[in-house]
Design goal:
70% of the residues lie in helices and 0% in strands. The chain has two helices and no strands.
Length: 46
């Protein structure tokens, strides 16, 4: 159940819900930054 919530939160940034049209090298960087923001938000909530 938690995995589905994470996917939903990442789709808000449109990196998973739409086709990524920028450079492939930057996909990993941006994805990690967004995931880091989400993890930071989870840590603040606990």
């Amino acid at each position: 159940m938690v995995g589905e919530h994470v996917n939903c939160r990442l789709k808000v940034f449109k990196i998973l819900s739409e086709r990524y049209r920028n450079r492939r090298k930057r996909f990993g960087l941006r994805f990690n930054l967004i995931a880091g923001l989400y993890n930071f938000e989870l840590d603040l909530a606990n």
